[in-house]
Write a structure and sequence with these properties.
Blueprint: E1 19-22, E2 26-29, H1 35-39, E3 44-47, E4 50-57, H2 60-77, H3 83-92, E5 101-106, E6 111-116, H4 119-122, H5 129-134, E7 149-152, E8 158-161, E9 179-180, E10 183-184, E11 196-198, H6 211-216, E12 234-237
Parallel strand pairs: 1-12
Antiparallel strand pairs: 2-4, 3-4, 5-6, 7-8, 8-11, 9-10
């Protein structure tokens, strides 16, 4: 979606999002009346013959509980799953049929945005709860599904890595080939040959004044240390 941020994360360059989930015009229970319902009464909606207790919103905050519900279903089916096993299964079974590029039309500004649906936009793909529930594979109980990082090579290309300088010896399930079993977690539309995420033309452009320097430049300052999260990160999608 147009409001979803793209990865990688600042400074530590962790790949995000891990996957995408429904986040536009989601209908959810709400407290009524409330500040939101008073300010945006047009978003109050009916659902299953109930009136006034439901609200329609868009955003990554609305996509997050969709993924949390999928995780809850997996744990309901198999309570022995570790958090990393849940995350790995959701990412592996995510739908990867998205086109490499797409267009988003913003009616409010009459503007069409062309987007590149790469690793930093859709992660491992689109959440597929049914496929996740049908899958029975498990990574090792001691393996971590921590999201990979990306590094800039001397050639200017950007490559995935499972190496974390402060976590020596971490048993990362993705491994050096970023694969799990026979299926690639990140689809063919996201990765190029030899695990290089981007070619010579980085998506932020070659101009040093562009976003490239903001993310990869040495002048990036975001605190003395930036902790990363092993939790599943999600982005709202159409």
């Amino acid at each position: 979606a147009s409001y979803s941020s793209k990865g990688p994360s600042m400074r530590d360059h962790v790949v995000k999002p891990d996957l995408v989930a429904p986040g536009n015009q989601m209908v959810a229970r709400t407290v009524f009346p409330s500040t939101l319902t008073n300010q945006y009464p047009i978003n109050v909606t009916t659902f299953e013959n109930a009136s006034g207790n439901y609200f329609k919103l868009s955003g990554t905050s609305m996509a997050t509980p969709v993924v949390a519900a999928a995780a809850a279903l997996l744990l309901q089916k198999d309570a022995t799953l570790t958090p990393d096993q849940v995350k790995a299964r959701l990412m592996k079974t995510a739908w990867k049929g998205m086109a490499a590029t797409a267009s988003i039309y913003d009616a409010s500004t009459n503007t069409t945005f062309n987007v590149q649906q790469d690793l930093f936009a859709i992660g491992a793909g689109y959440l597929d709860a049914s496929a996740a529930l049908a899958n029975t594979e498990k990574i090792g109980s001691t393996q971590s599904a921590v999201s990979p990082r990306v590094v800039v090579l001397s050639t200017g290309k950007v490559q995935l890595t499972s190496s974390y300088p402060n976590l020596a010896g971490l048993n990362v399930v993705w491994g050096s080939n970023v694969v799990w079993g026979e299926n690639v977690v990140w689809g063919s539309n996201v990765l190029l040959a030899n695990n290089v995420v981007w070619g010579d033309n980085v998506v932020w452009g070659t101009n040093v004044s562009s976003g490239y320097n903001v993310v990869w430049g040495d002048s990036v300052v975001w605190g003395d240390s930036t902790p990363f999260s092993m939790a599943l990160s999600t982005a709202g999608d159409n």
